Amino acid sequence: MSSSMIILAIVVAVAGYVMVTYNALVRVRQMVQEAWSGIDVQLKRRADLIPNLVETVKGYASHEKETLEKVTEMRTRAQNVPAGDVAGRAAAEGMLSQALGRLMAVAEAYPDLKANENFRDLQGTLETLESEIQMARRCYNGSARELNVKVESFPSNLVANNFGFAKADYFELEDPSDRETPDVKFN
Question: Which numeric CATH code is attached to 2-175?
Answer without folding.
Answer: 1.20.1440.20
